């Protein structure tokens, strides 16, 4: 597509059209981020704003010395890793099953799609009720089928709580993967399959040697976006367990929100920096790793 | 072959059941009388249907007010952000100008970094501007939150409109603005509607910013109100279930309307690249 060259006459139009959006983002997104990165080096407590001296790396030191932060960091690994693994696996399966057209496929997709209309907050509530230790339907079903004899306090025992929130997150995220992977599958040119079929390749071999190599770059990108998204997704945990019991379902982002709600903005800023660093480090590492694999 | 087909049907059926059951369960819970919600064994079909929890929402809790607040904030934010998106997307799609790439990058970066990373400073800013506990305050923050995504999406829609169409209109003597309103917008209307609905649903569902900036009773949105239903040890699950159903119905309807576009929007960037 040809774009008209930039001329002074058009500068006014361009500025006029972009100004509102840029202004909103600059004032309400970038300015707070910049201010936040300054506050991270200050003693800054909402309930005592009389003095806000610069304290160097004090906030970072305090956060890193806190046991709960390390627990949250470990939990973040579990939360992201396990959620992603099962979402990917089930989503891939679903995509393969939905790849070919069948009667009622559109309707089926519409139904399976519905969790996406709900917020993480509501999803968390839904599962909090189902995992209820006393009147929860999951306990009831497990009792009825004889899998357990006594109720499990899924959300009140530290051993079970993480599993429970991950189950809810997997339920929520499978559809996303299914949709993305279906789109990726559709991008594979039909001729490739035809050629492979002429060569006598079985279905499985076609999948392994035609489909997979073709969609791998897309899959890599989807996974990266997903990791970032799951990491930035405290909503479900917030409404399901609030990070409890005893911090057993805290992830770095719920930890961050607790710091903000506690009013210690200095520390919250430090946690924010650490989360950003984590995101950046992971993205670079991941991009590097997948590039390496592709060039091999 | 038949066996395979049967297996496929069963697997799909099971997954459908797993997906739909939580929704079914919350609806059923909202229709059960309290005595039945908290009695064992659980009933999978209510013996007695009641609307008392819905009635409670609107009598004891001011749920009608919260709904109205949510509706107002979502409508205004979505409308403003759609207009901003249409304008910004237009120049990003049609003109090459210095700083264009940097601007796109600046917008994309905000999509990777969660907004609540700056929740504290944002609170201070809102406080300085006197926007705490005000619906207008929520609106401006939501607009800022949605501008990057909506602008980038609208840029994509603009790129699909042939330049010739716009040029033809201009040859006929229409100004750029007239060409946009009379020729381009009608062609893009489905995309514009989808963007509006997407923004609406995002705002309707938003929690953390709202609970940070709002604690006065008359400015609460639905998620803020529902959040205050959560107490440390006890949740009135009847009312909570009813509130969940009431708050999710509008988004279900809207999402169903734009499902095609969401799928397209989600997949376009990743698959093309």
From TrEMBL, chain B:
<keyword id="KW-1003">Cell membrane</keyword>
<feature type="transmembrane region" description="Helical">
    <location>
        <begin position="66"/>
        <end position="93"/>
    </location>
</feature>
<keyword id="KW-0812">Transmembrane</keyword>
<dbReference type="InterPro" id="IPR035906">
    <property type="entry name" value="MetI-like_sf"/>
</dbReference>
<dbReference type="Pfam" id="PF00528">
    <property type="entry name" value="BPD_transp_1"/>
</dbReference>
<feature type="transmembrane region" description="Helical">
    <location>
        <begin position="237"/>
        <end position="258"/>
    </location>
</feature>
<feature type="transmembrane region" description="Helical">
    <location>
        <begin position="12"/>
        <end position="31"/>
    </location>
</feature>
<feature type="transmembrane region" description="Helical">
    <location>
        <begin position="131"/>
        <end position="154"/>
    </location>
</feature>
<feature type="domain" description="ABC transmembrane type-1">
    <location>
        <begin position="67"/>
        <end position="258"/>
    </location>
</feature>
<keyword id="KW-0472">Membrane</keyword>
<keyword id="KW-0762">Sugar transport</keyword>
<dbReference type="GO" id="GO:0055085">
    <property type="term" value="P:transmembrane transport"/>
</dbReference>
<keyword id="KW-0813">Transport</keyword>
<dbReference type="InterPro" id="IPR050901">
    <property type="entry name" value="BP-dep_ABC_trans_perm"/>
</dbReference>
<comment type="similarity">
    <text>Belongs to the binding-protein-dependent transport system permease family.</text>
</comment>
<feature type="transmembrane region" description="Helical">
    <location>
        <begin position="183"/>
        <end position="204"/>
    </location>
</feature>
<protein>
    <submittedName>
        <fullName>Multiple sugar transport system permease protein</fullName>
    </submittedName>
</protein>
<keyword id="KW-1133">Transmembrane helix</keyword>
<dbReference type="InterPro" id="IPR000515">
    <property type="entry name" value="MetI-like"/>
</dbReference>
<dbReference type="GO" id="GO:0005886">
    <property type="term" value="C:plasma membrane"/>
</dbReference>
<feature type="transmembrane region" description="Helical">
    <location>
        <begin position="105"/>
        <end position="125"/>
    </location>
</feature>
